[in-house]
Design a protein that fits this description.
Length: 581
């Protein structure tokens, strides 16, 4: 049997990465964050603390558009903070949405990013406003703890529990997992609220708190950890991209339990073939009453066996490939005291969102709106942010639901208010789908420049323009309405899950992208690199003949990703380890 890497009886080994030492010495994620916040001389905080604030849901960044100018003027970079607000399962009330909108406009850069994991992000929060912003988020009964960092993140789930009784139950399960795996340190409320109690206070700060992390230990996980739950036939949260993906299994309208998949992840590094995206492998089935236990035990296997000496090898996907699925299954059975059962059959049909109005089992109405790149802001002729604010203020008890594809659902709208919502959106010319191509409807773009420190190329600011050009090619071949999943990221970390795009673009250098083809339409097959380091002209030249052939030669119902494999443009990627072959 392999020996666990985490050994709490010994000091952190010298070969463990610096972040491991920072976590160890941090006193449950405190470090010197408080001192750093008080220092008025700089807009930054200490380097080591920037690792710890991630666990609190905030990243120090600098505006990359201004870097050169500031360097020339001998000024420190234009530091500010991104805050990620955790919304388990993606649902918040209209009142909370209005709070987010207010915070974005009063304390951040006047926009909000709806992320690929159903969270809100604020950008451009200055250090002097960071505490106030955190306080206002917490006072709205949302929080940002564990939105980033080496812990379990926002648990993703279909945001509409009113599609069926099963949806409602599954949503409950995702919230239970999220709650169970939330870190217990009191550092969060101590730093951001001075330990005070606030209205609508989360449980952790009601009464005396004591620092212990029964699940994480003070060393936390080796790396980020992600969980998503899907209800077939929709894989709208891309479960196979998660460390743990759960597939709800129903029988005659009743939730029976979940197939459990492990070891998904997208991140890799250009040119390093021992890093690769991997889709989660289904390892068995378990009944609903045991699912929280199974998820907990899987996470603790990763806590104990995950690599802590190389962060590029520290995700659960590598632990699984290093030790093998059989070891994981045996260890899980040992920790649980029971084994998983044989997996049940399921079929996924798509991983995108379906737009427009639908009626829920409770008789209320749900409207899914396409939000390009997940960015909520006002632009000339498209006052999206204003329109949504007006909807939130006039929709009664309706709520706001973030999807896993950076889109927004306005939910629980009464028949009477449905008309009001439609009128507001129409007045602002927002939410009209008729003109959107199948490509655009199925697009995702990560944040990238100017805020993301890791971006090598544009993504969110560029994909809309590129799609307009690809649309022209698609239209010429009669493919305008065909749904093709298209995803772009500014670097290979995979935040927009580009390796699950039937067409995937991954930034290599300014204006240059790797082009990937061949992913499955429902998120069950990775794509493969087709062309490396190409610019816009080359992208369009490459895609033109492929789209033309697809229009002419596709079989009945054949998806674009499947066609690019059958036609020989790329080989099918069967598992993560053959991604680079
Ligand atoms: Fe991500 C890092 C943005 C979803 C894989 N991600 C980052 C950082 C924090 C950059 C950094 O470390 O300095 C980005 C902040 C940019 C900014 O300015 O806001 C960032 N990731 C995002 C978001 C906002 C993209 C978006 O446009 O929606 C998504 C926030 C999700 C959330 O609400 O929690 C986001 N990131 C993802 C996903 C997709 C998913 O989880 O379904 C992935 C791929 C799945 C996975 O984890 O493997 C992803 N992000 C990464 C990685 C690579 C991890 C790896 O295993 O190698 C990094 C870099 C890292 O961790 O070292 C990263
Ligand atoms: Fe930044 Fe890369 Fe993630 Fe895009 S994929 S947000 S560029 S880390």
């Amino acid at each position: 049997m392999p020996t666990p890497i985490l050994d709490l009886t010994k000091p952190v080994p010298k070969d463990h990465v610096h972040v491991e030492h920072i976590k160890d010495a941090s006193n449950y994620l405190r470090g010197t964050i408080e001192e750093g916040l008080r220092d008025p001389i700089t807009g930054a905080i200490a380097d080591d603390d920037t690792q710890l604030t991630k666990f609190h849901g905030t990243y120090m960044q600098d505006d990359r558009d201004l870097r050169n100018e500031r360097r020339k003027s001998k000024l420190e970079p234009a530091f500010s903070f991104m805050i990620r607000v955790r919304v388990p399962g993606g649902i918040c009330t209209a009142k909370q949405y209005l709070e987010m909108d207010r915070i974005a406009n009063s304390l951040a850069n006047g926009t909000m990013k709806l992320t690929t994991r159903q969270a809100f992000q604020f950008h451009g929060v200055l250090k002097r406003n960071l505490r106030q912003t955190m306080r206002e988020i917490i006072e709205s009964s949302l929080d940002s703890i564990a939105a980033c960092g080496d812990v379990n993140r926002n648990v993703m789930c279909n945001p509409n529990p009113y599609q069926s009784k099963v949806h409602e139950e599954v949503y409950g399960v995702s919230c239970a997992i999220s709650e169970h795996l939330t870190p217990k340190t009191s550092a969060y409320y101590e730093i951001w609220l001075n330990g005070e109690k606030a209205g609508g206070t989360p449980k952790e700060i009601q009464g005396d708190t004591k620092d212990e992390e029964p699940l994480y230990t003070h060393r936390y996980l080796p790396r980020k950890f992600k969980i998503a739950v899907a209800i077939p036939p929709y894989n709208d949260v891309d479960i196979f991209a998660n460390d743990i993906g759960l597939v709800a299994i129903e029988d005659k309208g009743k939730l029976k339990g979940f197939n459990v998949a492990v070891g998904g992840g997208m991140g890799m590094t250009h040119g390093e073939t021992d890093t690769y995206p991997r889709l989660a492998s289904v390892i068995g089935f378990i009944e609903t009453n045991k699912i929280v236990d199974v998820v907990e035990k899987l996470m603790t296997i990763q806590r104990d066996y995950g690599c802590r000496s190389n962060r590029k090898h520290a995700r659960f996907k590598y632990t699984i490939d290093d030790y093998g699925l059989d070891f994981i299954k045996e260890e899980l059975a040992k920790r649980c005291g029971y084994a998983l059962k044989k997996e049940k059959k399921f079929v996924f049909e798509r991983n995108g969102d379906t737009y427009g109005w639908t009626q829920g089992t409770n008789g209320k109405w749900f409207l899914t709106l396409f939000i390009e790149g997940g960015r909520v802001k006002d632009t000339k002729g498209h006052p999206l942010m204003t329109a949504l604010r007006e909807v939130a203020g006039n929709c009664g008890n309706a709520d706001f639901r973030l999807t896993g594809n950076q889109n927004l659902m306005i939910g629980n709208v009464t028949a009477a208010k449905k008309k009001t919502v439609d009128e507001i959106l129409k007045k602002h010319k927002v939410g009209e789908y008729a003109g959107l191509s199948g490509l655009r409807r199925n697009s995702i773009a990560c944040v990238a420049l100017p805020t993301c420190a890791l971006a090598m190329a544009e993504s969110e600011r560029y994909l809309p323009t590129l799609i307009t050009k690809i649309e022209a090619l698609a239209e010429a071949s009669g493919l305008r309405d065909d749904e093709i999943v298209i995803r772009m990221t500014g670097c290979p970390n995979g935040c927009g899950r580009p390796y699950l795009g039937e067409i995937g673009f991954v930034g290599k250098a300014p204006g240059k992208y790797n082009l990937y083809l061949g992913a499955g339409f429902s998120g069950e097959r990775l794509n493969k690199m087709y062309r490396e380091n190409i610019d816009e002209t080359e992208i369009l030249n490459e895609l033109k003949p492929i789209l033309e052939r697809y229009a002419k030669e596709r079989k009945d119902g054949e998806r674009f990703g499947d066609f690019t494999i059958r036609a020989g443009y790329v080989k099918a990627t069967v598992e993560g380890r053959d991604f680079h072959d």
